[in-house]
């Protein structure tokens, strides 16, 4: 599923992802359903992001977690800034491999404030 996204395969992407994903929270009360593995959920999130389907349309029979589970984890990881960390890690990895020309990525660091109406 990840093959077309990056110049490396799903195992290499998974290795990068493991470096930024938060640890699984413990359930002090015990019991309940087994938590879907992070790798399964990541694959489901990538599927939703690349296929254009909604969370509710996620084919859990082939992806594993339900759309609700994938969305819940997506939200959890978004709050933990996993996607920004992963993005930076991917850029660093591409730079280290010489596959990214940082000179073409430079952005002038200018702060701009939006004006409020009436100012």
TrEMBL record:
Q: Which Pfam families match?
A: DUF4096
Which domain of life does the UniProt lineage start with?
Answer: Bacteria
Which InterPro entries does the annotation name? Answer: IS402-like_dom (IPR025161), Transposase_6_like (IPR052909)
Domain (Insertion element IS402-like): residue spans on this chain: 11-87
| PANTHER family hit by this protein | BLL5188 PROTEIN, TIS1421-TRANSPOSASE PROTEIN A
- Please identify the protein, giving its name as recorded: Insertion element IS402-like domain-containing protein
User: Top-down, what is the taxonomic lineage of the species of origin?
Assistant: Bacteria, Bacillati, Actinomycetota, Actinomycetes, Kitasatosporales
């Amino acid at each position: 599923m990840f093959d077309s996204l990056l110049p490396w395969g799903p195992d290499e992407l998974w290795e990068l992802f493991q470096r930024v994903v938060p640890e699984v929270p413990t359930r002090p009360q015990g019991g309940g359903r087994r938590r879907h593995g992070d790798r399964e959920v990541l694959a489901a999130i990538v599927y939703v992001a690349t296929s254009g389907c909604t969370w509710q349309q996620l084919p859990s029979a082939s992806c594993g977690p339900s759309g609700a589970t994938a969305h819940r984890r997506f939200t959890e990881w978004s709050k933990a800034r996993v996607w920004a960390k992963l993005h930076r890690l991917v850029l660093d990895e591409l730079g280290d491999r010489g596959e990214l020309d940082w000179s073409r990525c430079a952005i002038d660091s200018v702060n701009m404030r939006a004006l409020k109406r009436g100012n």
